[in-house]
Specification:
480 residues; Rossmann fold; Helicase, Ruva Protein, domain 3
Protein backbone atom coordinates (compact mmCIF):
# COMPACT_ATOMS: atom_id res chain seq x y z
CA UNK A 1 0.00 0.00 0.00
CA UNK A 2 0.95 3.60 -0.33
CA UNK A 3 2.69 5.44 2.41
CA UNK A 4 1.00 7.79 4.84
CA UNK A 5 0.63 11.49 4.25
CA UNK A 6 -1.23 13.48 1.62
CA UNK A 7 -3.24 11.40 -0.80
CA UNK A 8 -1.79 11.04 -4.26
CA UNK A 9 -4.00 12.23 -7.10
CA UNK A 10 -4.76 9.93 -10.02
CA UNK A 11 -6.42 11.04 -13.25
CA UNK A 12 -8.42 8.30 -14.96
CA UNK A 13 -9.26 9.04 -18.61
CA UNK A 14 -12.13 6.66 -19.42
CA UNK A 15 -15.19 7.43 -21.55
CA UNK A 16 -17.45 4.65 -20.20
CA UNK A 17 -18.89 5.95 -16.93
CA UNK A 18 -19.71 2.51 -15.49
CA UNK A 19 -16.18 1.22 -16.16
CA UNK A 20 -14.64 4.36 -14.67
CA UNK A 21 -16.78 4.01 -11.53
CA UNK A 22 -15.86 0.33 -11.17
CA UNK A 23 -12.12 0.93 -11.55
CA UNK A 24 -12.31 3.87 -9.17
CA UNK A 25 -13.87 1.58 -6.55
CA UNK A 26 -11.05 -0.93 -7.14
CA UNK A 27 -8.55 1.78 -6.13
CA UNK A 28 -10.29 2.76 -2.87
CA UNK A 29 -8.03 0.54 -0.70
CA UNK A 30 -4.96 2.41 -2.00
CA UNK A 31 -6.10 5.66 -0.40
CA UNK A 32 -5.67 7.75 -3.56
CA UNK A 33 -7.85 10.56 -4.93
CA UNK A 34 -9.17 9.54 -8.35
CA UNK A 35 -10.52 12.14 -10.76
CA UNK A 36 -12.26 11.03 -13.95
CA UNK A 37 -12.11 12.59 -17.42
CA UNK A 38 -14.47 11.14 -20.04
CA UNK A 39 -12.72 12.63 -23.09
CA UNK A 40 -9.19 13.35 -24.22
CA UNK A 41 -9.84 17.07 -24.26
CA UNK A 42 -11.11 17.01 -20.68
CA UNK A 43 -7.88 15.32 -19.65
CA UNK A 44 -5.79 17.98 -21.39
CA UNK A 45 -7.92 20.72 -19.81
CA UNK A 46 -6.96 19.41 -16.36
CA UNK A 47 -3.30 20.04 -17.19
CA UNK A 48 -3.90 23.45 -18.74
CA UNK A 49 -5.76 24.41 -15.55
CA UNK A 50 -2.64 23.74 -13.52
CA UNK A 51 -3.83 20.54 -11.82
CA UNK A 52 -1.09 18.19 -10.67
CA UNK A 53 -1.34 14.40 -10.66
CA UNK A 54 0.91 11.58 -9.52
CA UNK A 55 -0.38 9.14 -12.14
CA UNK A 56 -2.51 9.05 -15.30
CA UNK A 57 -4.64 6.02 -16.24
CA UNK A 58 -5.33 6.55 -19.93
CA UNK A 59 -7.73 4.66 -22.20
CA UNK A 60 -6.58 4.40 -25.84
CA UNK A 61 -10.08 4.60 -27.31
CA UNK A 62 -11.65 7.97 -26.59
CA UNK A 63 -14.64 9.62 -28.27
CA UNK A 64 -12.82 12.74 -29.45
CA UNK A 65 -9.08 12.18 -29.89
CA UNK A 66 -6.74 9.20 -29.73
CA UNK A 67 -5.20 8.20 -26.41
CA UNK A 68 -1.82 8.31 -28.19
CA UNK A 69 -2.35 12.00 -28.92
CA UNK A 70 -3.25 12.68 -25.29
CA UNK A 71 -0.14 10.81 -24.18
CA UNK A 72 2.04 12.79 -26.58
CA UNK A 73 0.68 16.10 -25.22
CA UNK A 74 1.21 15.00 -21.61
CA UNK A 75 4.77 13.99 -22.38
CA UNK A 76 5.47 17.39 -23.97
CA UNK A 77 4.54 19.34 -20.87
CA UNK A 78 5.01 16.95 -17.93
CA UNK A 79 7.30 14.09 -19.02
CA UNK A 80 7.92 12.90 -15.45
CA UNK A 81 4.31 11.81 -14.75
CA UNK A 82 3.86 8.02 -15.06
CA UNK A 83 1.13 7.09 -17.55
CA UNK A 84 -0.51 3.66 -17.56
CA UNK A 85 -2.30 2.85 -20.80
CA UNK A 86 -5.59 0.94 -20.58
CA UNK A 87 -6.70 -0.82 -23.74
CA UNK A 88 -9.36 -3.40 -24.55
CA UNK A 89 -7.60 -4.48 -27.72
CA UNK A 90 -4.85 -6.53 -26.10
CA UNK A 91 -2.52 -5.98 -29.06
CA UNK A 92 1.19 -6.24 -28.36
CA UNK A 93 1.68 -3.66 -31.14
CA UNK A 94 -0.52 -1.16 -29.33
CA UNK A 95 1.37 -1.82 -26.10
CA UNK A 96 4.76 -1.39 -27.77
CA UNK A 97 3.63 1.80 -29.48
CA UNK A 98 2.36 3.15 -26.15
CA UNK A 99 5.78 2.50 -24.63
CA UNK A 100 7.40 4.33 -27.56
CA UNK A 101 5.18 7.31 -26.85
CA UNK A 102 6.40 7.32 -23.24
CA UNK A 103 3.89 5.19 -21.32
CA UNK A 104 5.34 3.60 -18.19
CA UNK A 105 3.05 0.56 -18.22
CA UNK A 106 -0.15 -0.77 -19.73
CA UNK A 107 -3.22 -2.80 -18.76
CA UNK A 108 -5.49 -4.91 -20.94
CA UNK A 109 -9.18 -4.40 -20.13
CA UNK A 110 -11.15 -5.83 -18.50
CA UNK A 111 -8.74 -6.16 -15.60
CA UNK A 112 -9.21 -7.54 -12.11
CA UNK A 113 -9.09 -5.37 -9.00
CA UNK A 114 -5.85 -6.93 -7.72
CA UNK A 115 -4.06 -6.38 -11.03
CA UNK A 116 -5.19 -2.75 -11.29
CA UNK A 117 -4.11 -2.01 -7.72
CA UNK A 118 -0.74 -3.72 -8.22
CA UNK A 119 -0.11 -1.79 -11.43
CA UNK A 120 -1.01 1.54 -9.82
CA UNK A 121 1.18 0.75 -6.80
CA UNK A 122 4.13 -0.06 -9.06
CA UNK A 123 3.64 3.09 -11.11
CA UNK A 124 3.52 5.29 -8.00
CA UNK A 125 6.75 3.91 -6.57
CA UNK A 126 9.95 5.96 -7.07
CA UNK A 127 11.68 4.99 -10.30
CA UNK A 128 14.78 3.88 -8.46
CA UNK A 129 12.77 1.10 -6.85
CA UNK A 130 11.09 -0.13 -9.98
CA UNK A 131 13.98 0.04 -12.44
CA UNK A 132 15.02 -3.61 -12.44
CA UNK A 133 17.06 -6.04 -14.41
CA UNK A 134 14.72 -5.69 -17.39
CA UNK A 135 16.50 -2.46 -18.21
CA UNK A 136 19.87 -4.19 -18.00
CA UNK A 137 19.09 -6.84 -20.59
CA UNK A 138 18.01 -9.78 -18.43
CA UNK A 139 14.80 -10.46 -16.58
CA UNK A 140 13.99 -13.65 -14.64
CA UNK A 141 15.56 -15.95 -17.24
CA UNK A 142 14.73 -13.78 -20.26
CA UNK A 143 17.47 -12.02 -22.20
CA UNK A 144 16.78 -8.95 -24.33
CA UNK A 145 15.86 -5.29 -24.20
CA UNK A 146 13.66 -4.94 -27.30
CA UNK A 147 10.48 -2.90 -26.92
CA UNK A 148 8.30 -5.96 -27.48
CA UNK A 149 10.02 -7.72 -24.57
CA UNK A 150 9.85 -4.60 -22.40
CA UNK A 151 6.07 -4.83 -22.85
CA UNK A 152 6.18 -8.48 -21.75
CA UNK A 153 8.25 -7.59 -18.68
CA UNK A 154 5.72 -4.94 -17.68
CA UNK A 155 2.83 -7.41 -17.91
CA UNK A 156 4.77 -9.86 -15.75
CA UNK A 157 5.53 -7.17 -13.14
CA UNK A 158 1.89 -6.10 -13.03
CA UNK A 159 0.39 -9.59 -13.05
CA UNK A 160 2.80 -11.30 -10.65
CA UNK A 161 1.38 -9.90 -7.35
CA UNK A 162 -2.13 -11.00 -8.31
CA UNK A 163 -3.69 -14.46 -8.17
CA UNK A 164 -5.30 -13.83 -11.54
CA UNK A 165 -4.74 -16.50 -14.18
CA UNK A 166 -2.27 -15.62 -16.93
CA UNK A 167 -2.83 -17.09 -20.40
CA UNK A 168 0.44 -17.14 -22.35
CA UNK A 169 0.40 -17.52 -26.13
CA UNK A 170 3.25 -17.65 -28.58
CA UNK A 171 4.94 -19.74 -31.21
CA UNK A 172 6.80 -22.88 -30.22
CA UNK A 173 10.20 -22.03 -28.77
CA UNK A 174 9.42 -18.46 -27.69
CA UNK A 175 9.88 -19.23 -23.96
CA UNK A 176 6.39 -19.76 -22.58
CA UNK A 177 7.60 -21.87 -19.65
CA UNK A 178 10.36 -19.33 -18.93
CA UNK A 179 7.61 -16.70 -18.84
CA UNK A 180 5.51 -18.76 -16.44
CA UNK A 181 8.52 -19.25 -14.16
CA UNK A 182 9.18 -15.50 -14.28
CA UNK A 183 5.64 -14.72 -13.14
CA UNK A 184 6.03 -17.22 -10.30
CA UNK A 185 9.46 -15.88 -9.30
CA UNK A 186 8.17 -12.28 -9.24
CA UNK A 187 5.14 -13.19 -7.11
CA UNK A 188 4.65 -13.63 -3.36
CA UNK A 189 4.52 -17.39 -4.08
CA UNK A 190 8.16 -17.51 -5.19
CA UNK A 191 9.20 -19.63 -2.17
CA UNK A 192 6.42 -22.14 -2.84
CA UNK A 193 6.45 -24.88 -5.54
CA UNK A 194 6.26 -24.21 -9.27
CA UNK A 195 4.81 -27.32 -10.92
CA UNK A 196 4.53 -27.68 -14.70
CA UNK A 197 2.48 -30.16 -16.71
CA UNK A 198 2.71 -30.51 -20.48
CA UNK A 199 -0.80 -31.50 -21.53
CA UNK A 200 0.43 -32.60 -24.97
CA UNK A 201 3.21 -34.88 -23.71
CA UNK A 202 1.14 -37.03 -21.32
CA UNK A 203 -1.11 -39.83 -22.67
CA UNK A 204 -4.84 -39.10 -22.49
CA UNK A 205 -5.53 -41.89 -19.99
CA UNK A 206 -2.79 -40.72 -17.60
CA UNK A 207 -3.16 -36.95 -17.56
CA UNK A 208 -5.94 -36.92 -14.95
CA UNK A 209 -3.72 -38.94 -12.63
CA UNK A 210 -0.80 -36.58 -13.32
CA UNK A 211 -2.97 -33.58 -12.52
CA UNK A 212 -4.98 -34.82 -9.53
CA UNK A 213 -3.07 -37.90 -8.34
CA UNK A 214 -4.48 -41.40 -7.75
CA UNK A 215 -5.17 -43.96 -5.04
CA UNK A 216 -3.50 -47.34 -4.81
CA UNK A 217 -5.27 -49.78 -7.14
CA UNK A 218 -7.24 -47.04 -8.92
CA UNK A 219 -6.16 -48.53 -12.26
CA UNK A 220 -3.75 -51.10 -13.63
CA UNK A 221 -0.24 -50.15 -12.59
CA UNK A 222 -1.29 -47.92 -9.67
CA UNK A 223 0.81 -49.78 -7.11
CA UNK A 224 0.72 -47.00 -4.53
CA UNK A 225 -1.04 -43.74 -3.72
CA UNK A 226 0.40 -40.79 -5.61
CA UNK A 227 0.12 -37.01 -5.27
CA UNK A 228 -0.76 -35.10 -8.43
CA UNK A 229 0.48 -31.74 -9.68
CA UNK A 230 -2.47 -29.92 -8.07
CA UNK A 231 -1.50 -31.16 -4.60
CA UNK A 232 2.23 -30.66 -5.17
CA UNK A 233 1.63 -27.03 -6.21
CA UNK A 234 -0.39 -26.15 -3.09
CA UNK A 235 0.52 -22.60 -2.09
CA UNK A 236 2.44 -22.10 -5.31
CA UNK A 237 1.88 -22.03 -9.06
CA UNK A 238 0.51 -24.68 -11.43
CA UNK A 239 1.60 -24.24 -15.04
CA UNK A 240 -0.50 -26.03 -17.67
CA UNK A 241 1.48 -26.01 -20.92
CA UNK A 242 -0.24 -26.73 -24.26
CA UNK A 243 -3.61 -26.41 -22.51
CA UNK A 244 -5.53 -26.66 -25.80
CA UNK A 245 -4.33 -30.28 -26.15
CA UNK A 246 -6.22 -31.35 -23.02
CA UNK A 247 -9.04 -33.88 -23.44
CA UNK A 248 -12.52 -32.33 -23.33
CA UNK A 249 -13.70 -34.60 -20.48
CA UNK A 250 -10.77 -33.50 -18.32
CA UNK A 251 -11.40 -29.87 -19.24
CA UNK A 252 -14.71 -29.99 -17.34
CA UNK A 253 -12.96 -31.34 -14.23
CA UNK A 254 -10.26 -28.70 -14.57
CA UNK A 255 -12.95 -25.99 -14.77
CA UNK A 256 -14.47 -27.18 -11.50
CA UNK A 257 -11.02 -27.31 -9.89
CA UNK A 258 -10.26 -23.72 -10.97
CA UNK A 259 -13.63 -22.49 -9.70
CA UNK A 260 -13.58 -24.22 -6.30
CA UNK A 261 -9.94 -25.08 -5.62
CA UNK A 262 -11.11 -28.62 -4.82
CA UNK A 263 -10.52 -31.95 -6.55
CA UNK A 264 -10.62 -35.70 -6.05
CA UNK A 265 -7.81 -38.14 -6.70
CA UNK A 266 -8.51 -40.86 -9.23
CA UNK A 267 -10.18 -43.70 -7.34
CA UNK A 268 -11.01 -41.59 -4.27
CA UNK A 269 -14.25 -40.04 -3.02
CA UNK A 270 -12.44 -37.67 -0.65
CA UNK A 271 -12.42 -34.02 -1.70
CA UNK A 272 -9.16 -32.10 -1.23
CA UNK A 273 -8.71 -28.32 -1.22
CA UNK A 274 -5.59 -26.45 -2.34
CA UNK A 275 -4.51 -22.86 -2.94
CA UNK A 276 -3.02 -22.71 -6.43
CA UNK A 277 -2.26 -19.89 -8.87
CA UNK A 278 -2.89 -20.99 -12.48
CA UNK A 279 -0.78 -20.11 -15.51
CA UNK A 280 -1.48 -21.78 -18.84
CA UNK A 281 0.05 -21.60 -22.30
CA UNK A 282 -0.50 -22.69 -25.88
CA UNK A 283 1.16 -22.23 -29.26
CA UNK A 284 -2.28 -22.18 -30.90
CA UNK A 285 -4.93 -19.49 -31.10
CA UNK A 286 -7.17 -20.48 -28.15
CA UNK A 287 -10.27 -18.81 -29.59
CA UNK A 288 -9.87 -20.73 -32.86
CA UNK A 289 -9.72 -23.93 -30.79
CA UNK A 290 -12.93 -22.87 -29.04
CA UNK A 291 -14.57 -22.29 -32.44
CA UNK A 292 -13.47 -25.76 -33.59
CA UNK A 293 -14.94 -27.36 -30.47
CA UNK A 294 -11.54 -28.49 -29.17
CA UNK A 295 -11.55 -26.17 -26.15
CA UNK A 296 -14.45 -25.40 -23.81
CA UNK A 297 -15.69 -21.84 -24.09
CA UNK A 298 -16.43 -21.56 -20.35
CA UNK A 299 -12.90 -22.77 -19.56
CA UNK A 300 -11.49 -20.24 -22.03
CA UNK A 301 -13.21 -17.36 -20.24
CA UNK A 302 -12.15 -18.71 -16.85
CA UNK A 303 -8.47 -18.92 -17.87
CA UNK A 304 -8.17 -15.99 -20.28
CA UNK A 305 -7.99 -13.31 -17.55
CA UNK A 306 -4.60 -11.77 -18.32
CA UNK A 307 -3.54 -12.61 -21.89
CA UNK A 308 0.20 -12.39 -22.53
CA UNK A 309 1.56 -12.85 -26.06
CA UNK A 310 5.26 -13.63 -26.47
CA UNK A 311 6.81 -12.14 -29.62
CA UNK A 312 8.64 -14.46 -32.03
CA UNK A 313 12.42 -14.13 -32.14
CA UNK A 314 12.31 -12.57 -35.63
CA UNK A 315 10.45 -9.57 -34.17
CA UNK A 316 12.90 -8.96 -31.34
CA UNK A 317 15.65 -7.22 -33.32
CA UNK A 318 19.04 -7.08 -31.61
CA UNK A 319 17.86 -9.45 -28.88
CA UNK A 320 18.83 -12.40 -31.09
CA UNK A 321 22.52 -11.42 -30.93
CA UNK A 322 22.39 -10.86 -27.17
CA UNK A 323 20.76 -14.26 -26.62
CA UNK A 324 23.21 -15.96 -28.99
CA UNK A 325 26.18 -14.41 -27.15
CA UNK A 326 24.88 -15.68 -23.81
CA UNK A 327 24.33 -19.17 -25.24
CA UNK A 328 27.77 -19.17 -26.84
CA UNK A 329 29.53 -18.49 -23.54
CA UNK A 330 27.39 -21.03 -21.69
CA UNK A 331 27.91 -23.86 -24.20
CA UNK A 332 31.61 -23.05 -24.58
CA UNK A 333 32.01 -23.43 -20.83
CA UNK A 334 30.06 -26.71 -20.84
CA UNK A 335 32.11 -28.15 -23.72
CA UNK A 336 35.49 -26.80 -22.60
CA UNK A 337 35.85 -24.62 -25.72
CA UNK A 338 37.30 -21.10 -26.11
CA UNK A 339 34.55 -19.41 -28.12
CA UNK A 340 33.92 -15.83 -27.01
CA UNK A 341 32.40 -13.88 -29.92
CA UNK A 342 30.84 -13.86 -33.40
CA UNK A 343 32.30 -12.43 -36.59
CA UNK A 344 30.48 -9.53 -38.23
CA UNK A 345 29.21 -11.86 -40.96
CA UNK A 346 27.74 -14.27 -38.42
CA UNK A 347 26.09 -11.41 -36.56
CA UNK A 348 24.38 -10.28 -39.77
CA UNK A 349 23.20 -13.80 -40.50
CA UNK A 350 21.74 -14.12 -37.03
CA UNK A 351 19.87 -10.85 -37.54
CA UNK A 352 18.66 -11.66 -41.07
CA UNK A 353 17.41 -15.19 -40.46
CA UNK A 354 13.67 -15.65 -39.77
CA UNK A 355 14.05 -18.18 -36.89
CA UNK A 356 10.90 -20.28 -37.39
CA UNK A 357 11.92 -22.37 -34.36
CA UNK A 358 12.58 -19.24 -32.27
CA UNK A 359 14.92 -19.40 -29.24
CA UNK A 360 14.88 -23.22 -29.18
CA UNK A 361 16.24 -23.28 -32.74
CA UNK A 362 18.86 -20.67 -31.85
CA UNK A 363 20.00 -22.86 -28.95
CA UNK A 364 20.45 -25.81 -31.30
CA UNK A 365 22.42 -23.74 -33.81
CA UNK A 366 24.82 -22.38 -31.21
CA UNK A 367 25.33 -25.76 -29.52
CA UNK A 368 25.98 -27.42 -32.91
CA UNK A 369 28.57 -24.77 -33.73
CA UNK A 370 30.35 -25.06 -30.37
CA UNK A 371 30.42 -28.87 -30.37
CA UNK A 372 31.68 -29.31 -33.95
CA UNK A 373 34.26 -26.49 -34.12
CA UNK A 374 37.02 -24.82 -32.16
CA UNK A 375 38.36 -21.30 -31.89
CA UNK A 376 37.62 -18.03 -30.15
CA UNK A 377 35.40 -16.44 -32.82
CA UNK A 378 32.48 -18.09 -34.62
CA UNK A 379 32.84 -17.57 -38.38
CA UNK A 380 30.32 -18.05 -41.18
CA UNK A 381 31.76 -21.35 -42.40
CA UNK A 382 31.11 -22.85 -38.94
CA UNK A 383 27.34 -22.27 -39.06
CA UNK A 384 25.13 -25.30 -39.73
CA UNK A 385 22.25 -25.30 -42.24
CA UNK A 386 19.98 -23.44 -42.61
CA UNK A 387 22.08 -20.53 -41.27
CA UNK A 388 24.77 -21.37 -43.82
CA UNK A 389 22.10 -20.68 -46.47
CA UNK A 390 20.70 -17.57 -44.83
CA UNK A 391 21.19 -15.35 -47.86
CA UNK A 392 18.98 -17.64 -49.94
CA UNK A 393 16.40 -17.80 -47.17
CA UNK A 394 16.43 -14.04 -46.89
CA UNK A 395 15.93 -13.58 -50.62
CA UNK A 396 13.10 -16.10 -50.65
CA UNK A 397 11.36 -14.29 -47.81
CA UNK A 398 11.54 -10.83 -49.36
CA UNK A 399 9.29 -10.86 -52.48
CA UNK A 400 5.94 -10.63 -50.61
CA UNK A 401 7.15 -7.54 -48.76
CA UNK A 402 8.73 -6.04 -51.88
CA UNK A 403 5.56 -6.71 -53.86
CA UNK A 404 3.51 -5.14 -51.09
CA UNK A 405 5.79 -2.10 -51.11
CA UNK A 406 5.40 -1.80 -54.89
CA UNK A 407 1.62 -1.97 -54.49
CA UNK A 408 1.75 0.65 -51.76
CA UNK A 409 3.96 2.89 -53.87
CA UNK A 410 1.50 2.58 -56.74
CA UNK A 411 -1.34 3.59 -54.46
CA UNK A 412 0.62 6.41 -52.83
CA UNK A 413 2.19 7.80 -56.01
CA UNK A 414 -1.02 7.41 -57.95
CA UNK A 415 0.91 7.00 -61.22
CA UNK A 416 -0.65 10.30 -62.31
CA UNK A 417 0.75 10.52 -65.82
CA UNK A 418 -0.04 6.88 -66.61
CA UNK A 419 -3.52 7.18 -65.14
CA UNK A 420 -4.24 10.28 -67.24
CA UNK A 421 -3.12 8.51 -70.40
CA UNK A 422 -5.26 5.44 -69.57
CA UNK A 423 -8.26 7.70 -69.04
CA UNK A 424 -7.72 9.36 -72.44
CA UNK A 425 -7.49 5.98 -74.18
CA UNK A 426 -10.70 4.78 -72.58
CA UNK A 427 -8.99 2.04 -70.59
CA UNK A 428 -10.26 3.64 -67.40
CA UNK A 429 -13.64 5.34 -66.98
CA UNK A 430 -15.10 7.47 -64.23
CA UNK A 431 -17.00 4.41 -63.01
CA UNK A 432 -13.65 2.77 -62.21
CA UNK A 433 -12.62 5.55 -59.82
CA UNK A 434 -12.75 4.49 -56.17
CA UNK A 435 -13.33 6.73 -53.14
CA UNK A 436 -10.09 7.93 -51.60
CA UNK A 437 -10.89 6.34 -48.22
CA UNK A 438 -11.22 2.93 -49.91
CA UNK A 439 -7.86 3.29 -51.67
CA UNK A 440 -6.34 4.36 -48.36
CA UNK A 441 -7.92 1.42 -46.54
CA UNK A 442 -6.56 -1.02 -49.12
CA UNK A 443 -3.05 0.46 -48.90
CA UNK A 444 -3.06 0.20 -45.10
CA UNK A 445 -4.30 -3.39 -45.22
CA UNK A 446 -1.60 -4.34 -47.75
CA UNK A 447 1.05 -2.85 -45.45
CA UNK A 448 -0.31 -4.60 -42.35
CA UNK A 449 -0.45 -7.95 -44.18
CA UNK A 450 3.08 -7.46 -45.51
CA UNK A 451 4.32 -6.89 -41.95
CA UNK A 452 2.41 -9.87 -40.49
CA UNK A 453 0.13 -7.62 -38.45
CA UNK A 454 2.91 -5.44 -37.01
CA UNK A 455 1.31 -1.99 -37.16
CA UNK A 456 4.40 0.08 -36.24
CA UNK A 457 6.31 -1.59 -39.12
CA UNK A 458 3.37 -1.02 -41.47
CA UNK A 459 3.34 2.64 -40.46
CA UNK A 460 7.03 2.83 -41.34
CA UNK A 461 6.35 1.49 -44.85
CA UNK A 462 3.53 3.98 -45.33
CA UNK A 463 5.58 6.82 -43.78
CA UNK A 464 2.83 7.75 -41.33
CA UNK A 465 2.53 7.65 -37.55
CA UNK A 466 1.30 4.33 -36.06
CA UNK A 467 -1.36 6.32 -34.20
CA UNK A 468 -2.76 7.37 -37.59
CA UNK A 469 -3.27 3.72 -38.55
CA UNK A 470 -4.80 2.86 -35.17
CA UNK A 471 -7.20 5.81 -35.50
CA UNK A 472 -8.26 4.87 -39.03
CA UNK A 473 -8.74 1.19 -38.15
CA UNK A 474 -10.89 2.29 -35.23
CA UNK A 475 -13.03 4.58 -37.41
CA UNK A 476 -13.53 1.89 -40.06
CA UNK A 477 -14.50 -0.62 -37.40
CA UNK A 478 -17.05 1.75 -35.89
CA UNK A 479 -18.55 2.51 -39.32
CA UNK A 480 -19.24 -1.20 -40.04
Amino acid sequence: MLGSGAKKRVLMVEDTASVAALYKSYLNPLDVDVEIASTGQQALDHFSSGHTFSLILLDLRLPDISGFEVLAEIRKHQPEIPVVIMTAHGSIDAAVEALRYGASDFLIKPCEAELLRATVNNALKPKSKTAGSAQEGSYYGFIGQSLSMQAVYRVIESAAPSKATVFITGESGTGKEVCAEAIHAASARAQKPFVAINCAAIPKDLIESELFGHMKGAFTGAASEREGAAELADGGTLFLDEICEMDLDLQSKLLRFIQTGSFQKVGSSKVKHVDVRFICATNRDPWVEVSKGNFREDLYYRLHVIPLGLPPLRDRGEDVVEIAQSLLLMFAMEEGKEFRSFSEGVTQRLLNYEWPGNVRQLQNVIRNTVVLHSGQEVTENMLPPPLSLVSGVKIASQPPIRNAQVAIERVNDGGFSAATEMLKQGITSKADIEPLWLVEKRAIQIAIDACDGNIPQAAGLLEVSPSTIYRKLQSWQESQ
